[in-house]
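Both lines are retained for reference:
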Amino acid sequence: MLFELPDDDALYTALIRRDTAYDGRAFVGVVSTGIFCRLTCAARNPKQENCRFFETAGACIEAGFRACKRCRPLDPPTLADPAIRELINALDADPARKWTEADIVNRGYDPSTVRRLFKRHFGMTFLEMARLYRLRDGFGALSEGGRVIDAQLEAGFDSPSGFRAAFARLLAQPPASFTGNETLKADWIETPIGAMIAVTDRRSLHLLEFVDRKALPSELRKLQKAARGDLGSGRFEPTEQIEAELGAYFEGKIERFETPLTLHGSAFTRLVWHELLRIPPGETRSYSEIAAAIGRPTATRAVARANGANQIALVVPCHRVIGADGSLTGYGGGLWRKQKLIELERNLAANGHSGRHSGHDAS
């Protein structure tokens, strides 16, 4: 962008002052409400620790925030275009709908034109925005009897059936090169808050990530390198086990995962991950509390880096780590997922589940 944003303190000052110089140039996502606004919004000012600042409305949506209905950050000048106005209104009316290019054509618009418009104004295409709307609302839809919401990896797959070919493209090798005898195998697992990829060997889980996490391609390539290229598609018994346990977890039946784990990281990083496994469901810890618990009270930043490097989402519960002030902090799977997981586990704890949520480390 031509406009370079100042630091968060300056942006918060602009928010308090409702500085019109930043209107349309910066947006604020409020973690405590899940809403994003213009900096000129007339709503009550949020606490600074609950604010996350973004350059575009699209970045706010990608982070899981909903548009404010008071200041309407998606409105003019972007909504001066009739295609954007109509399609945004359609998304708001039915966020769970799975849109296709044919739907765009049926509304009288050219898909390539719509693609350029949304990319220019929001930094993402309309179909990408629609996918994020579905993911954001997926957990609630399932609890109300809806179907599981799917997700996509940038490599190009949007269903289990399309996984093998797209996975091969991601690893830069032809699908026929997979022999079925690889040491590590990756496969697709559906969950109520988006599809995940599980990588296992015959005895343990090596990776569990949401397919729309931006770091996933690099994480898979690291595993491929660690396995000396011996990474293919398919599943071993630990994949079946973690899939069953995830189903029971989201149904509120268990809070403890028993699937054996192999943790890839430095000695310090694994020490942090083991401490995460000790956090009971329904509870949270700050980075400084984790640092103190492992005997490294001055290593708060290193703890934060180790937390962010976790490659086994949910099972190694990095989502249970929050800011010292109680605010949500960054989460590779999106802050909206972090909030959903914390709420789910608090409900589990309130309903009498008291066991620890941890896997067996096979590393």
User: Anything to note?
Assistant: The chain has four domains: 8-67, 78-143, 160-250, 260-361. The longest helix spans residues 126-143. Confidence is low (pLDDT under 50) at residues 138-157.
